[in-house]
Amino acid sequence: PPRSFCDGADLRAIVLAAVGEALDPARTASARATSAPAAAVHDVRKAIRRTRAIVDLVSRALPKRERKDIRNALVGARRSLGPARDLVVASEALVAVATAPEVAPAAATIVDAARADAPTPQAIADDVSRAVAIALAQGDAIAAALPDELSLRSLTRGLAETYRRARRARRKARRSDRA
User: Fold this and answer.
1) Percent of the chain with pLDDT over 70
2) Rg (CA), the chain
3) Cβ atoms 28, 128 nearer than 8 A
4) Which residue among 31, 38, 47, 108 is the one 20 to 30 A from 21 at the CA level?
5) What's the rounded mean pLDDT across residues 7-35?
6) To the nearest 5 percent, what fractions of the chain are helix, strand and coil?
7) CB 29 within 8 A of CB 128
């Protein structure tokens, strides 16, 4: 069972274990990217986002330059998989709409055109492999940059800042809904 912060647990080890767990789906997704590219893209993007969330939690403990480099690399890796994700989502939506007889001929034409321009499963697998390599390298960078002693206070501050950002984003979203 996981140790609590109260019994003297090594926060650094706990954070690094969380990073490892966050990146595990990316490791396995890379192996099945050719056979199930949509699922692999989804799993890698999710793993990268979870890793970024952990970086946000420990951001005060990381040196500024390393923190920025790690975040930028993770953002870039996640964005590099965006077009593949968009293609999958669009084709699934189009297939759902195409069942209506009124739009079936036009939808079939669009699907055929999209398939002609679509990246091959191998190209998607290559993109997934590159994104996974970048994400795993950032896991190593986190381990190298994280100080040996990680205070509960810095982790608490990271959590508070993450919560503040989420609340601001929620308020902003509600304001835009009213417009």
Assistant:
1) 92
2) 20
3) no
4) 38
5) 88
6) 80, 0, 20
7) yes
